[in-house]
Amino acid sequence: xxxxxxxxxxxxxxxxxxxxxxxxxxxxxxxxxxxxxxxxxxxxxxxxxxxxxxxxxxxxxxxxxxxxxxxxxxxxxxxxxxxxxxxxxxxxxxxxxxxxxxxxxxxxxxxxxxxxxxxxxxxxxxxxxxxxxxxxxxxxxxxxxxxxxxxxxxxxxxxxxxxxxxxxxxxxxxxxxxxxxxxxxxxxxxxxxxxxxxxxxxxxxxxxxxxxxxxxxxxxxxxxxxxxxxxxxxxxxxxxxxxxxxxxxxxxxxxxxxxxxxxxxxxxxxxxxxxxxxxxxxxxxxxxxxxxxxxxxxxxxxxxxxxxxxxxxxxxxxxxxxxxxxxxxxxxxxxxxxxxxxxxxxxxxxxxxxxxxxxxxxxxxxxxxxxxxxxxxxxxxxxxxxxxxxxxxxxxxxxxxxxxxxxxxxxxxxxxxxxxxxxxxxxxxxxxxxxxxxxxxxxxxxxxxxxxxxxxxxxxxxxxxxxxxxxxxxxxxxxxxxxxxxxxxxxxxxxxxxxxxxxxxxxxxxxxxxxxxxxxxxxxxxxxxxxxxxxxxxxxxxxxxxxxxxxxxxxxxxxxxxxxxxxxxxxxxxxxxxxxxxxxxxxxxxxxxxxxxxxxxxxxxxxxxxxxxxxxxxxxxxxxxxxxxxxxxxxxxxxxxxxxxxxxxxxxxxxxxxxxxxxxxxxxxxxxxxxxxxxxxxxxxxxxxxxxxxxxxxxxxxxxxxxxxxxxxxxxxxxxxxxxxxxxxxxxxxxxxxxxxxxxxxxxxxxxxxxxxxxxxxxxxxxxxxxxxxxxxxxxxxxxxxxxxxxxxxxxxxxxxxxxxxxxxxxxxxxxxxxxxxxxxxxxxxxxxxxxxxxxxxxxxxxxxxxxxxxxxxxxxxxxxxxxxxxxxxxxxxx
Length: 879
Fold this sequence. Notes:
Mean pLDDT is 89; it is low at 435-444. The termini are far apart. Helix 7 (246-259) packs across helix 8 (267-288). Strand 1 (23-24), helix 2 and strand 2 form a beta-alpha-beta unit. The longest helix has 35 residues, at 345-379. By secondary structure, the chain is α+β, with helices and mostly antiparallel strands.
């Protein structure tokens, strides 16, 4: 068996199935497109779901891919074993109702034995318990001896996910030899040891499971196969784990060089080396596909992987920032198959560097919080660090539990691990429930699917706002009906329509649909399966039947406003790249008649000057009156023209290009003006952050922009009038008022300090002495906590040595403060213990250090009783 490199294996696989009349597709992005059931693409089949369900027509009935994938359920095991990893590539060949087992099985055998050159006797097969058809093909047609074919149950060899398409599967195993075995006499396919490695799964999707649990045969069964590229490479290169194959091993060796360690010499070091090796691959590919670090969703996954890698770099003793350099090596070995890595290398490395720097700050914050909490526990003479606190450090600051335990134990405490594990389990349960709740989305449906694949819409509304169409279907009260009457809320499917269906961030059109005796007011239009345009509306008069010919009438005023906003979004995108840099990429958008919203990748808030520059550039493009050319061409030709592809869009071989003069060229399926001048005016409303590394601009165009400026002008006049000046002198007036206010605040502060001094003189006269210690206990009228603390400090300073206990009723609450000088603390006095019991009398709580503590209470009527209790506690401590 000739050793083959991972990149060579990938190409041989794709070429083999191209030779079997399959269409080679590029890997889909890791961010799922129009699939809310997944956070990240986790299999080769996942992006193909719309083709298997019939929601979309595949580009060809035979397809082959190498899909980049990420799986994170076992993230905490990555590194601890050499089996687990988050990032992998999945080879796959798919048939959408074309070939089936008779072809899929022999082709798998042919690829393994003839292309890869695997010894036939080393390959073992598993099939589903009752799948005699697969057994016959493997045994009789391919020639596999029956002793190398194992029948396994539903748990191992039957694929299903809720309701819908499902079926048996057959897996290929490679026998790596006795040295990888467990010496058990029953060792074989399915054993937990490393001898028999499963490397290819052939799924035969031949049933449709209904709600009654019946498995109904599919008229056109499908093939879905998946083979882990890295796992196949371990076989072909004769290495022990995926971390030792050529491409992954290159990254691993670079990390070892960076850390000055050798892989295989120290078990703890090996864990850290594997963690960084795996995680940097995931991080690099995720960023290339538009994922930005955040605190939820896929952004949280990215940040967690980054932080885990940084933490393990520290464990290896790597000094300074290092991950961006490791990412460079990960890009080096994969850029041939994934050119986007090279194209975005500068951006990927820059973002990783920034996140690594930020995590250093986070570690410092976590340490500060941890030490503060430890100090509190020691002062309270307790010995257990709460598990919820440990979980907060992990969840908020990314603090590993092992580091928390180590620091806590150094200070003589223990961590309540059971509480921490309960909090972690609660988090896992929430995540699992979220996954269960999303199961229904795996095989999505639309109300017109029962009408068949021929019941589809044709959109002709780019240039026509009114067309004639035939009603193909009506839905009222979630049921297909033949007729809709006045007052009904209805969904219509037409064979031809001028209504744009919501997609690409652009909202659906509104308007009217009419026949000879009635009309329907359309308030939205959305896309269903097979690109159907679903019209949502209310029958205002008359009745409508399936088969009726109707006239569609899109609201021209609203469509024109939407077009102004959509074209201006393209111009703003170009301006942002000009002003901020080419790293700016669209991360989401919303275009309606009223406004536009644009999310984009950027690391910091835009300055006022940058916002002004973008505004001026867009308005300049409007004034240039660029003609807008909209045409269809091949995806390769569009890229040659420099066209920008937008976030979240799936493109076929033929794409629609929107070219605004020589200023902007983007791929887009939305509605646009014919000339940039029709936008009239462009005005940015706001710029703000919506997630880590993602900014959002909202803006208006045309009359909406004019109205915005008029409103700002009206506000300016009102403010000037209120300040008894004119708009030209408003800024000067505001500065004058601010300066005056500053002087007044200073005067108020001086008066408060003088008042506090007077209060101190009054209180000090009531000082008592107990056991040779000066004690001042007093009720001070209507002071907030800061003011009360100030009085306490003044009293303590005036006394020189002693104890202060003050209480004050303020805003229907009670504030308490207790202080003691160092010499009194040395005698065993503890202000925190006193204040805790004092506050409890007034229905509150608090605590603090031996020399200073504060607390709050809920019941002002208990103030005097609480102070009396406090005086008694002070005397007890001094005895």
